[in-house]
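User: C-alpha cells for this one?
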Amino acid sequence: MKDDCRYATKLSTLLRAGELTPVYVPNNEDEAMRDFVRARVDVRKALRKVKQQINVFLLPLYESKREKR
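Assistant:
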C-alpha cells in the first residue's frame, strides 16, 4: 500500500505551520574543503600513532642506558 497521499498531506501541513527548515546542499568547493579537513585530521592521527610507536620502541633502549649510569 502506498502512502504518498498521506505523506504529501503531512508535508503540506508541516509547511503551512512553518515546521520545516531549509536544507543546505554543499557545493563542490564546500565538499572539497570538508574532504581536506578530514584528510588533515586523519594525517594528524596517523602521525600521533607513529610517534607513539617510535617512543615505545625506543623506551627500552633509553632505560637500559639510564640504568648503566
